[in-house]
Design a protein that fits this description.
By secondary structure, this protein is mostly beta strands. The protein folds into two domains: 37-183, Immunoglobulin-like; 187-317, no CATH class. It is 10% helix and 36% strand. It has helices at residues 2-29, 33-36; strands at 41-47, 50-53, 57-65, 84-88, 98-102, 109-114, 119-124, 136-143, 149-153, 155-159, 171-172, 178-186, 190-193, 199-203, 210-214, 236-240, 251-258, 269-270, 280-281, 298-305, 310-317. A hairpin with a 5-residue loop joins strand 13 (190-193) and strand 14.
């Protein structure tokens, strides 16, 4: 009898062991916090994507927690809310003058600028204010770019935790937001300095700004007055900004740069077309021998300043559209 009882007991315990094994497997694969948070994607974009150097501007970066997988470039909908955002501000845009945050879904977020770290920090005020899948946050900031050329990348990171970064890091699905700096805004009589120390002063009476950019590929090699010495050490491009109002009289462009010889060695290659690759050699405004003054554009002054050892060249440009290329 004892042998039969032992046999039956072993038979009877098998279903219990199997049941325990199934329950243990269910505990292991049950969707906990880590599994539920497996999809954490966001996208970011800034508008506008351009800036004018040394001129105050305002931009808005929009950060969105990925919702539908069809909303490219998201590949899937996030499974948790987004609670913290950090934007590393490029040095060209520091310091940030002001920053605010707003959500179309009326989520409450706190935003500030850390001048020591150079970062914009934003976080959901409460857990219920986190950006749920599909929600977006606009961070609007003002700054004055310090340079006249280049790009600034606003490296953006996000986390599920709030109010500080830590747990549940999100992955950005777009390229990091970038702003291109195209020239410097100059007011009447203002001066801007290029990368090699060459300065450009624009005057003649106007309101608003002109945009000054250093660099280009203009050539006057087809002009009969072309010779080995021509142009300026660095090409200067001047175009009226959107707020430019002409005023009266021609506009005056004065370039100052290190002396590399007598000022007569230079010829000024000029075009009013910003897309041109060929130009003409400018004539002096005062041709002499009793001839009448030449209308702008023309070379007003061209000399070497021996006190500073600089070459100075002044050009008169049309007042209505003082384009120089």
């Amino acid at each position: 009898m004892s042998g039969i009882w032992l046999y039956l007991s072993r038979r009877g315990r098998l279903p219990l062991i199997a049941t325990f094994t199934v329950l243990l497997a269910m505990v292991v694969v049950a969707p906990g916090v880590s599994a539920r948070a497996a999809v954490k994607q966001f996208k970011a974009a800034v508008s506008p994507t351009t800036a004018v150097g040394q001129t105050s501007g305002t931009w808005t970066e929009t950060i969105q927690n990925c919702g539908s997988a069809s909303a490219a470039p998201c590949t899937a909908s996030s499974t948790i809310g987004l609670g913290t955002i950090r934007i590393a501000v490029p040095t060209e845009f520091r310091p940030i003058a002001s920053v605010t945050a707003s959500s179309p879904q009326l989520r409450n977020w706190t935003v500030s600028y850390d001048s020591v770290a150079g970062t914009i920090n934003a976080y959901a005020t409460t857990g219920s204010d986190k950006l749920q899948p599909g929600d977006a946050l606009g961070i609007t900031f003002s700054a004055t770019p310090s340079t006249c050329t280049g790009t600034g990348t606003f490296t953006t990171s996000a986390w599920g935790s709030t109010p500080t970064p830590g747990s549940d890091p999100f992955t950005i699905q777009t390229a990091q937001p970038t702003i291109t700096i195209s020239g410097c805004g100059v007011t009447n009589g203002g001066t801007v300095t290029g990368p090699n120390g060459q300065t450009e002063t624009v005057g003649g009476g106007f309101t608003g700004h002109v945009i000054v950019t250093f660099g280009g590929n203009l050539s006057c090699s087809g002009d009969p007055q072309w010779d080995a010495g021509f142009h300026l050490p660095t090409q200067v491009i001047i175009t009226p900004a959107g707020d430019y109002v002409a005023g009266s009289g021609p506009k005056i462009s004065t370039s100052t740069f290190d002396a590399t010889g007598d000022s007569s060695f230079f010829r000024i290659c000029y075009s009013t077309n910003p897309d041109a690759t060929t130009g003409t050699i400018l004539q002096p405004c005062y041709p002499g021998n009793g001839q009448p003054l030449i209308d702008p554009p023309c070379v007003d002054k061209q000399y070497r300043d021996f006190t500073t050892n600089k070459i100075v060249i002044t050009i008169l440009m049309p007042g209505g559209d003082p384009a120089k290329h």
